[in-house]
Amino acid sequence: MGVLTGWEAVSRALYAIGLVTALCWGLQLARWCWGGFRVYVLSSFWKTDLRQFGQWAVVTGATSGIGRAYADELARRGLDLILISRSIEKLHTAAKEIESQYGRQTHVIQVDFTKGPSIYPIIAEKLQGLEIGILVNNVGMNYAGMLVYFLDVPDPEKSITDVINCNMLSVAQCFKVVPHRHKGLIINISSEAGSQPQPMLALYSATKVFVTYLSRSLTAEYRMQGITVQCVTPCVVSTNMTHNVEVGPLVKSASAFAYEALNTVGYSNYTSGCLLHALQHIALCIFFPGWLRLSTFCMRYTEKFAQSWRQEIEAMMARSAKKAD
Ligand SMILES: NC(=O)c1ccc[n+]([C@@H]2O[C@H](COP(=O)([O-])OP(=O)(O)OC[C@H]3O[C@@H](n4cnc5c(N)ncnc54)[C@H](OP(=O)(O)O)[C@@H]3O)[C@@H](O)[C@H]2O)c1
């Protein structure tokens, strides 16, 4: 074998580095694909038995949307339900429907999560003596129901406090007041909006970062005590919050979402909830990174989009008001 020239040695070293890098990326890609397959596909065949956590499940914001869908799915999987929400009529209707449809027991607790710390002793008292296995911290609100500048909401002082109380305080306080057995499951509903800063959804997205970070830290803190904390970060689900946008290739119905998200319990503690939203998350990270979202160029488009969306929502609301007349 002859002695390598300088150039040959450099090109062989570069070739070796390239090969190792490609191998590492390949292995990483294979790990992601296997992880995704396990969490979103295998999980639908081998579901975790949710009754192992205890007899009762508590769901906050349980009368409509994702919370109601979680309550239905938990009842279908054999749990009794404690429904917490703001409107007593809606609570009684939901409880009756769950009892007759799934034959499970229910309790209701009427509280308004915007009211701050005073409501938690009431919740704690009503939960006493029940064997609670699952808590779904679902309740959440956006301050305007559409994309707006931070201070362009009616009564910003009240809205800011309400959103913080409802989206953040509820998650931390309910974790504290719901009695934990040695084996329990806490599901915290965060949002894709919490994975990157979101101009024109500023406060909402900031509250969801809080939920995500709190959940992920609690996962590590309480794992050894047998308590599972799962953080779920959906993209768009058709609910009142999203003005019941049509279900389609990018939008899940609440019931399909809750079904798939509950399948992921035991497979992942930090999940988009369903395959469709996991793929959207990856696409958003690649094609719409933080620096682009925050650029002035993008802000102009977000502003235009917000305007046309607002007009569409107003027209939709006018149409449904006309229908109701
Ligand atoms: N929909 C989405 O696309 C989406 C995406 C990502 C994350 N999320 C998150 O998913 C969760 C549920 O959202 P959703 O779309 O299902 O909302 P939704 O359809 O507006 O339902 C909200 C539920 O919470 C209750 N609620 C609202 N404000 C309350 C308050 N102050 N006190 C007590 N209960 C209150 C409502 O009860 P009443 O009817 O009695 O008011 C209702 O049962 C939220 O945390 C949201 O941030 C939603």
Please characterize this protein's 3D structure.
- With 325 residues, this protein is α/β, with parallel strands linked by helices.
- The protein has a single domain (39-288), classed as Rossmann fold (3-Layer(aba) Sandwich), CATH 3.40.50.720.
- The protein has helices at 6-45, 65-76, 88-102, 120-127, 156-177, 202-223, 254-263, 275-287, 290-293, 296-324, and strands at residues 56-60, 80-85, 106-110, 132-137, 184-189, 227-232, 237-238, 252-253, 270-271.
- Helix 3 (88-102) links the parallel strand 2 (80-85) and strand 3 (106-110).
- Helix 2 crosses helix 7 and helix 5 (156-177) packs parallel to helix 6.
- It starts with 5 loop residues before the first helix and ends with a helix.
- The model has no long low-confidence stretch (mean pLDDT 93).
- Bound molecules: NADP nicotinamide-adenine-dinucleotide phosphate.
